């Protein structure tokens, strides 16, 4: 698969994104006689297609109350264990992870929350009531098996998942991919509770030798450690938590924050979360074989920033993390063993 995971964008700072999951990702392969710069005649060619909508998976647009989302239902009669999938800063509606999860037997809701259709263009704060509405949508859906739902998120999306697990009922299992466990830049609100943001200081931006910005240390210090008032009260979460950590994450210090989440849980007499750390792995841990995106636009600073990760190690981590996520959801949401098979 190295031919795929080692791909680099022609356009600098461009990230591989699968926007339309109904169209496969196609790579044309050609073997030429000789070498660059003067390759000879074409010896053979092949077409490699990766489906993002596995056979039999159904895609349904969801416009219910305020909820803007897409639901992917696995083949077969159902009901299926349910997952809500949430991305991070930048917003929009990204469906590729949800569609792949549905191929493994999970009814998965790719959930937008800003910068999509009639949702707000920007986000002033994070109101969990919106996410509660999405959770209720899943719970009342006849094809979704209750009594609880799984949550999967990356980065800011992971922190939203950890907040949902802490404040809302009926969350059975939560997976955070490079989340922080902290209310970062915007307050997280639910009814009369509000978690104040920790905030950041742009003077702490570093510029690497390559000229790229490194924002890994811009967040304010977590004074008081796990007792800091900006920490999400993860001890209130009912279901188990899996924290996936890239040890070379340059968006923020994921490994340190995972430690704080663990300390907080233990200080409250709760079970330790499962933490899986991957060396040489950056912020954008995607499904297997997505090429590494070393740097791209970060909406927070409106500049290109480095995300971290070394291509080979990052790719290995993506393969393993995917297996671990599937196995975790199978165990805690009651999927069948077949659905945990790590094939894409
Ligand atoms: C999907 C997009 C790209 C935006 O969608 P959109 O609005 O439909 O996009 P648009 O109008 O076409 O472009 C807006 C801008 O997004 C950039 N962009 C667009 N496509 C790509 C790409 N393939 N690679 C790299 N950059 C891309 C471009 O610069 C676009 O601007 P431009 O058109 O060039 O003016 C974005 O919102 C996104 O990537 N969303 C999910 C991001 C995500 O999960 N990020 C997680 C990591 S970062 C994070 O959450 C940090 C948290 C920090 C904190 O809370 O402290």
UniProtKB/TrEMBL annotation:
InterPro entries in the record: AB_hydrolase_fold, Acyl-CoA_thioEstase_long-chain, BAAT_C, Thio_Ohase/aa_AcTrfase, Thio_Ohase/BAAT_N
UniProt domain Acyl-CoA thioester hydrolase/bile acid-CoA amino acid N-acetyltransferase: residue ranges: 1-63
Keywords of the record: Hydrolase, Serine esterase
Organism superkingdom: Eukaryota
GO molecular function, one term: carboxylic ester hydrolase activity
A GO biological-process term: acyl-CoA metabolic process
Keyword Ubl conjugation assigned: no
Residues at the active site: 155 (charge relay system), 249 (charge relay system), 283 (charge relay system)
Domain BAAT/Acyl-CoA thioester hydrolase C-terminal, first and last residues per copy: 126-334
Cellular component GO terms held in the UniProt record: peroxisome
Family designation: Belongs to the C/M/P thioester hydrolase family.
Protein name per the record: BAAT/Acyl-CoA thioester hydrolase C-terminal domain-containing protein
Source organism of the structure: Cercocebus atys
């Amino acid at each position: 698969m190295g031919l795929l995971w080692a791909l680099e964008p022609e356009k600098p700072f461009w990230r591989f994104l699968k926007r339309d999951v109904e169209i496969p990702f196609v790579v044309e392969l050609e073997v030429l006689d000789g070498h660059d710069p003067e390759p000879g005649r074409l010896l053979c060619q092949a077409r490699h297609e990766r489906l993002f909508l596995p056979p039999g998976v159904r895609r349904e647009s969801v416009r219910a109350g305020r909820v803007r989302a897409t639901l992917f239902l696995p083949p077969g009669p159902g009901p299926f264990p349910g997952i809500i999938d949430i991305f991070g800063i930048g917003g929009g509606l990204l469906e590729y992870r949800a569609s792949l999860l549905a191929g493994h037997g999970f009814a998965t809701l790719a959930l937008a929350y800003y910068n999509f259709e009639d949702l707000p263009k920007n986000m002033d704060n994070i109101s969990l009531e919106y996410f509660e509405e999405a959770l209720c949508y899943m719970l009342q859906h006849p094809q979704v098996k209750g009594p609880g739902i799984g949550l999967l998120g990356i980065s800011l999306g992971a922190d939203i998942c950890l907040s949902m697990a802490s404040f809302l009922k009926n969350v059975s299992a939560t997976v955070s991919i490079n989340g922080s466990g902290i209310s970062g830049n915007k307050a997280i609100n639910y009814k009369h509770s509000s978690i104040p943001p920790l905030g950041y200081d742009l003077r702490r931006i570093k510029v690497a030798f390559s000229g790229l910005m490194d924002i890994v240390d811009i967040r304010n210090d977590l004074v008081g450690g796990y007792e800091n008032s900006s920490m999400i009260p993860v001890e209130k979460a009912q279901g188990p938590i899996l924290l996936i950590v890239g040890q070379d994450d340059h968006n923020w210090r994921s490994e340190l924050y995972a430690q704080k989440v663990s300390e907080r849980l233990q200080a409250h007499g709760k079970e330790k979360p499962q933490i899986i750390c991957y060396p040489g792995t950056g912020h954008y841990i995607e499904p297997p074989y997505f090429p590494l995106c070393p740097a791209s636009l970060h909406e927070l600073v409106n500049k290109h920033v480095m995300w971290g990760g070394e291509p080979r190690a990052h790719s290995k981590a993506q393969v393993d993390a995917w297996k671990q996520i599937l196995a975790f959801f199978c165990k805690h949401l009651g999927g069948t063993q077949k659905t945990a098979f790590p094939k894409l």
